Structure to design on (225 residues):
């Protein structure tokens, strides 16, 4: 079922730096690409999402870049803060049909102060 | 607070036993999803229900089953438990037609 591949598995970034997490998908029927953030002891929560009709979406310090032809998308966290330390999951689904999200295996981000 | 409630939060049991995990979705959400989270496999989709009917199946073992009741709460039943079933089990709910899932805080199952 591994249709979404995520890298790197872990990432250490200095405070103020840029964190970049990459994902690649296989199923061209996917049309919804969210990123979820999970803190220890909590469930994942939606951070930002994109649909394939745009190549980039920005919300505050978080940006998704989407490359439909390469079947890849990435999360960029600008000015990374210690509070951003969490596990990040990319996912994909046929969102309009209300189907289940298929998740990548996650990236553990540590932002050092 | 996502609005999705899962019980119990923690559960310790022995191999061969059976447990039931319960999920109450957000008010008004008709879809319920179950996911298993382990360290090496990440978040694995198990099964989805929509308004009481099974909608999709993922990597759910035959020893596992689920149902969604008329009041829309859902239960995940895990039987003949093995050590490898130890994991966090998450329930999520959504409004049909959107992609966003709202996750509960999970039920941590430990099989000894």
């Amino acid at each position: 079922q591994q249709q979404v591949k995520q890298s790197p598995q872990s990432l250490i970034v200095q405070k103020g730096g840029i964190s970049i997490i990459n994902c690649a998908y296989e199923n061209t029927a996917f049309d919804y690409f969210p990123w979820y953030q999970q803190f220890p002891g909590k469930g994942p929560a939606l951070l930002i999402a994109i649909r394939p009709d745009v190549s980039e979406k920005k919300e505050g310090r978080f940006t998704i870049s989407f490359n439909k032809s390469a079947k890849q998308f990435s999360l960029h966290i600008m000015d990374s803060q210690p509070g951003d330390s969490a596990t990040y999951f990319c996912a994909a689904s046929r969102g309009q049909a209300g189907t289940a999200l298929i998740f990548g295996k996650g990236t553990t981000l540590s932002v050092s102060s | 607070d996502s609005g999705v409630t899962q019980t119990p939060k923690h559960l310790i049991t022995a191999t061969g036993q059976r447990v039931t995990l319960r999920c109450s979705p957000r008010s008004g959400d008709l879809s319920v999803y179950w996911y298993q989270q382990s360290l090496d496999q990440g978040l694995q989709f198990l099964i989805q229900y929509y308004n009481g009917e099974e909608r999709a199946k993922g990597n759910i073992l035959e020893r596992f089953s689920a149902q969604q009741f008329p009041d829309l709460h859902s239960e995940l039943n895990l039987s003949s438990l093995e050590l490898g079933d130890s994991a966090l089990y998450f329930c999520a709910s959504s409004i049909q037609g959107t992609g966003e899932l709202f996750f509960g805080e999970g039920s941590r199952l430990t099989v000894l």
